[in-house]
Amino acid sequence: MPIFVKDIMSKPVFKIEENKSIKDAANLIKKIRRGFLVVTRKGSPVGVLSDSDIIRNVVAKNYIPSRTKIKSVMTHHFVSISSGEEMINAVRKMKKGNVHRLPVIDNNKIVGVISLTDIARTSPEMPAASWLRASPR
User: Fold this and answer.
1) For burial by CB atoms within 10 Å, which of 25, 31, 53, 108 has the most?
2) In this predicted structure, what is the pLDDT of residue 120?
Protein backbone atom coordinates (compact mmCIF):
# COMPACT_ATOMS: atom_id res chain seq x y z
CA MET A 1 0.00 0.00 0.00
CA PRO A 2 1.57 3.33 -1.05
CA ILE A 3 2.26 6.10 1.45
CA PHE A 4 1.31 9.55 0.23
CA VAL A 5 3.08 12.83 0.93
CA LYS A 6 -0.07 14.26 2.56
CA ASP A 7 0.01 11.45 5.13
CA ILE A 8 3.50 12.21 6.44
CA MET A 9 4.24 15.86 5.63
CA SER A 10 4.87 18.31 8.46
CA LYS A 11 2.53 21.16 9.29
CA PRO A 12 2.37 24.04 9.95
CA VAL A 13 4.59 25.47 7.26
CA PHE A 14 6.91 28.16 8.54
CA LYS A 15 6.98 31.05 6.10
CA ILE A 16 8.68 34.42 5.83
CA GLU A 17 8.33 37.28 3.35
CA GLU A 18 11.20 37.80 0.91
CA ASN A 19 11.81 41.43 1.95
CA LYS A 20 12.58 40.55 5.57
CA SER A 21 16.19 40.48 6.73
CA ILE A 22 18.35 37.45 7.33
CA LYS A 23 18.39 38.47 10.99
CA ASP A 24 14.57 38.16 11.04
CA ALA A 25 14.85 34.74 9.39
CA ALA A 26 17.53 33.57 11.83
CA ASN A 27 15.42 34.67 14.79
CA LEU A 28 12.43 32.77 13.41
CA ILE A 29 14.54 29.66 12.76
CA LYS A 30 15.81 29.84 16.34
CA LYS A 31 12.30 30.30 17.73
CA ILE A 32 10.68 27.43 15.82
CA ARG A 33 13.72 25.16 16.09
CA ARG A 34 13.58 24.24 12.40
CA GLY A 35 16.24 24.83 9.76
CA PHE A 36 13.96 25.61 6.84
CA LEU A 37 11.57 28.39 5.82
CA VAL A 38 9.41 28.83 2.74
CA VAL A 39 9.92 32.33 1.36
CA THR A 40 6.81 34.09 0.10
CA ARG A 41 5.80 37.13 -1.90
CA LYS A 42 2.26 38.23 -1.09
CA GLY A 43 1.55 34.77 0.31
CA SER A 44 2.78 32.77 -2.70
CA PRO A 45 5.95 30.67 -2.51
CA VAL A 46 8.91 32.17 -4.37
CA GLY A 47 11.84 30.39 -2.75
CA VAL A 48 13.21 28.58 0.25
CA LEU A 49 15.74 29.49 2.90
CA SER A 50 17.63 26.94 4.96
CA ASP A 51 20.13 27.26 7.75
CA SER A 52 22.70 26.06 5.21
CA ASP A 53 21.80 28.94 2.86
CA ILE A 54 22.44 31.39 5.70
CA ILE A 55 25.82 29.85 6.48
CA ARG A 56 26.89 29.59 2.83
CA ASN A 57 25.48 32.87 1.51
CA VAL A 58 25.66 35.21 4.51
CA VAL A 59 28.06 34.06 7.23
CA ALA A 60 30.77 32.73 4.89
CA LYS A 61 30.62 35.93 2.84
CA ASN A 62 30.70 38.11 5.96
CA TYR A 63 27.44 39.87 5.09
CA ILE A 64 25.60 41.76 7.82
CA PRO A 65 22.42 39.76 8.63
CA SER A 66 20.36 42.82 9.61
CA ARG A 67 21.16 44.50 6.28
CA THR A 68 20.85 41.45 4.03
CA LYS A 69 17.44 40.73 2.51
CA ILE A 70 16.22 37.16 2.29
CA LYS A 71 15.47 37.51 -1.42
CA SER A 72 19.15 38.15 -2.15
CA VAL A 73 20.37 34.87 -0.64
CA MET A 74 17.42 32.44 -0.76
CA THR A 75 17.21 29.50 -3.11
CA HIS A 76 14.99 30.78 -5.93
CA HIS A 77 14.63 27.60 -7.95
CA PHE A 78 13.42 25.00 -5.52
CA VAL A 79 12.11 21.49 -5.90
CA SER A 80 8.56 20.91 -4.64
CA ILE A 81 5.99 18.15 -4.63
CA SER A 82 2.21 17.88 -4.41
CA SER A 83 0.43 16.28 -1.46
CA GLY A 84 -1.12 13.55 -3.62
CA GLU A 85 2.19 12.12 -4.78
CA GLU A 86 3.65 8.96 -3.28
CA MET A 87 6.42 9.21 -0.70
CA ILE A 88 8.83 7.34 -2.97
CA ASN A 89 8.52 10.19 -5.49
CA ALA A 90 9.55 12.61 -2.74
CA VAL A 91 12.61 10.46 -2.04
CA ARG A 92 13.53 10.48 -5.74
CA LYS A 93 13.10 14.25 -6.00
CA MET A 94 15.21 14.82 -2.89
CA LYS A 95 17.96 12.62 -4.23
CA LYS A 96 17.89 14.19 -7.70
CA GLY A 97 17.76 17.73 -6.34
CA ASN A 98 20.30 17.00 -3.58
CA VAL A 99 17.94 18.43 -0.94
CA HIS A 100 16.64 17.23 2.42
CA ARG A 101 13.27 19.00 2.40
CA LEU A 102 10.55 19.65 -0.16
CA PRO A 103 7.78 22.22 0.12
CA VAL A 104 4.42 20.58 -0.53
CA ILE A 105 2.43 22.80 -2.87
CA ASP A 106 -1.13 22.32 -4.12
CA ASN A 107 -2.74 24.92 -6.39
CA ASN A 108 0.16 27.36 -5.74
CA LYS A 109 -0.52 27.19 -1.99
CA ILE A 110 1.92 25.82 0.55
CA VAL A 111 0.25 23.00 2.45
CA GLY A 112 3.21 21.36 4.16
CA VAL A 113 6.86 20.34 4.04
CA ILE A 114 8.21 16.82 3.73
CA SER A 115 11.70 16.11 5.05
CA LEU A 116 14.08 13.20 5.37
CA THR A 117 13.04 13.06 9.01
CA ASP A 118 9.37 12.63 8.06
CA ILE A 119 10.30 9.83 5.68
CA ALA A 120 12.61 8.11 8.18
CA ARG A 121 9.93 8.31 10.87
CA THR A 122 7.48 6.59 8.53
CA SER A 123 9.84 4.05 6.98
CA PRO A 124 12.77 3.33 9.27
CA GLU A 125 13.63 0.25 7.25
CA MET A 126 14.14 2.26 4.03
CA PRO A 127 17.81 2.01 3.00
CA ALA A 128 18.71 5.69 2.91
CA ALA A 129 22.39 5.75 3.77
CA SER A 130 23.60 6.69 0.28
CA TRP A 131 21.25 9.64 -0.21
CA LEU A 132 21.44 10.91 3.38
CA ARG A 133 24.94 12.09 2.64
CA ALA A 134 23.64 14.72 0.22
CA SER A 135 24.40 18.25 1.37
CA PRO A 136 21.38 19.93 3.03
CA ARG A 137 19.52 22.83 1.48
Assistant:
1) 25
2) 87
